[in-house]
Structure formats: C-alpha cells, structure tokens
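During the reporting period the student researcher (J.K.) took over the structure-prediction task from the postdoctoral fellow and processed the backlog of single-chain submissions. One of the processed entries is reproduced below for the supervisory committee.
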Amino acid sequence: VVCVHARAGSADALLQRLSDRALQVVGHSADVSQADEVERLAAFVQGRWGRCDILVNNAGITWDGVFLRMGDEVWDRVLGVNLRGTFLCARAFSRGMAKARWGRIVNVGSVVGLFGSAGQANYAASKAGLVGLSRSLALELAGRGVTVNVVAPGFIETDMTSGLPERRAEAIRAEIPLRRLGRARDVAEVVSFLAGSSGGYVTGATLRVDGGLYA
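J.K. obtained the following structure tokens:
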C-alpha cells in the first residue's frame, strides 16, 4: 500500500495505523496536479513493485466562494487537484494495468458533482468532470480488464464537518433519511468492494454513499 499526500509527513498517523495491521505500507509525497510529480510517483511504484493493481484517487480540496467573485487561482487550484490530478494519476498507472490486463481504478467524487452546491462552483465542476472522465476511461479500458468507477459520498463525518455548528449539523441529519452523517468506513467499504474481485463486473458506475439524501 502506498499512501500519497501533498505534504511529507502528513500521512504519518495513517501509515502507523496501517502498519499495525501487518500491511506493507509506505508513504510518498506528491502534488497530483503536477505531471512531473505524478510521473515520479509512478516510477517509484514501478521500480519497487513492478506495477500498481489498484488506484484510489482520493485527493481533493475545497476552496469555496461566491461564483461572481471567484478568482482564477481559486478555480484553477480546485480543478487542478480534483480533476487534473485524477486524470494524471489514472494515465500514469493505468498503463501497467492495461499491460497486465487487470486493474481497478476508483475515483472518489461527491454528490455535489451530481446535484451542485451554491458557493462551490469550482468543487462541483471538478467532481462532475470526474464522473465524465471515469465513464470515458471505463469504456476505453474495459477491453483490457480494467474497471473504472466513482464513489460519491454525501455528508461524511470528517474534520471539516466536525466544525459545523450543532444546529446546522442537526438540520443536515434531519434531511438524511438514515438520520445520521456517514462515516469514513461507509465510504471505505464501497471503495473496497469496487477494488476487489466482487466488483469485477462493475465499471463506469457512480455509487452514491449519502444515506438516501438524494434518493
């Protein structure tokens, strides 16, 4: 398992948790929006293991703002990490998968990319683009035994949502049919399904993990 983070050392806690489970885990720093850094990452993986069998594109940032006042830098940075980064990683790592005629690519999107969100035009565009990119890659790579899918979480308990005022959090939970925010495990288990043999006949799909919010 290779955990990639934009800043060296930022994934240390995760690396320790995974190492405790007797997994072989290494960390690597890279800005996935930069082609040269992604290529170096791919070369590192290839040099150590030969190829990557499963790629989970989970890098994502938000930089919210009103559309009419959104600057170019704000737009470009979010699209750069969320969409361009996914494209670059998929391109770099799918070569080995196609050659081996087996591979799994799971791209983490968002329900915001499917339904929009005021103040998040850049984020919504990046996640909507992720769906189109994934469906196109699924069609191109299916003949090589490579599946490509999207997992689209709704409101998930994260560091970002933990800072919500309690009244706002209650309002969100009231809108969700399952009456709770999702947990990281809820998303991880869907990713695991798509990355494993059980999900081998699923490709080009977008699976919402939103507690029925947009049912």
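The committee noted the following: The chain has one domain: 52-209.
J.K. will present the remaining backlog at the next meeting.
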